[in-house]
Write a structure and sequence with these properties.
InterPro entries: Epimerase_deHydtase, Lipid_A_modif_metabolic_enz, NAD(P)-bd_dom_sf
CATH class of the largest domain: Alpha Beta
Number of domains: 2
Protein name: Reductase
Largest sheet: 7 strands, parallel
Number of helices: 11
Radius of gyration: 20 Å
Helix content: 25-40%
Order of helices and strands: EHEEEHEHEEHEEEHEEHEHHHHH
CATH topology of the largest domain: Rossmann fold
Strand order of the largest sheet: 3-2-1-4-5-6-11
CATH superfamily of the largest domain: NAD(P)-binding Rossmann-like Domain
Pfam families: Epimerase
Number of strands: 13
Mean pLDDT: 96
Shape: globular
Distance between the termini: 63 Å
Length: about 325
């Protein structure tokens, strides 16, 4: 299988490259040259942000499939897809569950209502950019040759957003850690490597259309995630569990200050209750949370403990001062101190 990856040097793209190389596929990576791709690939350099002229390196060549992880202007997907449509068999676009109209209902499947989007748009909000990217890929390749991988929360080695790396770093510092509850709160996410393997399986099988791609409901919980962080770091730590009402009353921000975590309610339903039965039926397999956490910690240690961060994404995580202030006032027996 000859595979072209648009991106391929960071996080999800890198996971796809490594998975394809592991299968013995012939891999070409088109990227800007800011980060080195894994060994064993053919590199082509260009810059999609400059329009069609930035795609000159893709003017020739043919591939069985392309995987595109782009999350910026839909027009960049449009330009690449149009250029490649006659020389590539299938187009797999790593989209997002953000394409569903807000608020998405609990248990929403792939037939849910979608946001508006345009394949010709420039810089637009994230949901519209992913919707526009889907439309652009489909317009160029046709519905039967286009796969939309609608991922939710993605974690794992090489994460450059900082969610799981923040929790691992905080737990590794030790002491008393604010743990937003309840412990039994189910989480949905996908390890980037499981996303990569499923996507390559789907491409090889000729699948098309949209697929929600996160772990099945009940795959893990907030308690199991943080317990795994404690075990793999070996830290001397106490997880101080706090009920959602107390966390919110203190003004702490779910998702941004407390990554991964969302309290029960509309936001939680949107992120952690997806119907993934279609992807599971098509072979989705999700490794245990312990493995994802352990491998992410091993990767962090190998690069000095500090994860890279995408410059277009805000920093995540609770400051030590705000955590200490909350813990000083919080009484788990009921009420503030």
């Amino acid at each position: 299988m000859k595979l072209l990856i648009l991106g391929g040097t960071e996080f999800v793209g890198r996971a796809v490259v490594e998975a394809a190389l592991g299968r013995g596929w012939e891999v070409t990576v088109f990227h800007r040259g800011r980060h080195a791709p894994p060994a064993g690939v053919r590199s082509l350099h260009g810059d999609r942000t400059t329009g069609p002229e930035g795609l000159a390196a893709l003017a020739t060549g043919s591939w069985d499939a392309v995987v595109d992880t782009w999350s910026g202007a839909p027009s960049a997907v449009r330009d690449a897809a149009r250029l490649l449509a006659d020389r590539v068999g299938r187009y797999a676009y790593v989209s997002s569950r953000s394409v569903y109209s807000w608020p998405p209902a609990a248990g929403l499947a792939e037939d849910g209502p979608l946001v508006e989007g345009s394949p010709d748009a420039g810089d637009v909000p994230y949901a519209e950019s992913k919707m526009g990217g889907e439309l652009a890929a489909t317009a160029a390749f046709g519905a039967e040759r286009t796969l939309h991988v609608r991922a939710g929360l993605i974690i794992g080695p090489y994460e450059n957003i900082g969610r799981l790396p923040w929790w691992l770093g905080r737990v590794a510092r030790g002491g008393t850690v604010l743990a937003p509850g309840p412990r039994s709160l189910p989480l949905q996410y996908v390890d980037a490597r499981d996303l990569a393997e499923w996507t390559l399986d789907a491409v090889a099988a000729g699948l098309s259309g949209p697929y929600n791609l996160v772990s099945p409901p009940g795959h893990t919980t907030m308690g199991e995630l943080l317990d795994a962080c404690v075990r793999v770091t070996g830290a001397d730590v106490e997880l101080r569990w706090a009920e959602p009402e107390a966390v919110l009353a203190a003004g702490l921000e779910p998702w941004s200050e407390l990554p991964v975590w969302l309290p029960p309610g509309e936001m939680y339903d949107a992120m952690h209750t997806a119907d993934v039965s279609r992807a599971v039926a098509a072979g989705l397999r999700c490794r245990p949370v312990e493995e994802t956490v352990a491998d992410t910690w091993a990767w962090l240690e190998s690069i000095g403990g500090v994860a890279p961060r995408r410059p277009d994404r805000p920093e995540v995580g609770l400051s030590p001062e705000r955590e200490a202030d909350f813990l000083a006032k919080y009484d788990p027996a009921g009420g503030d101190r």
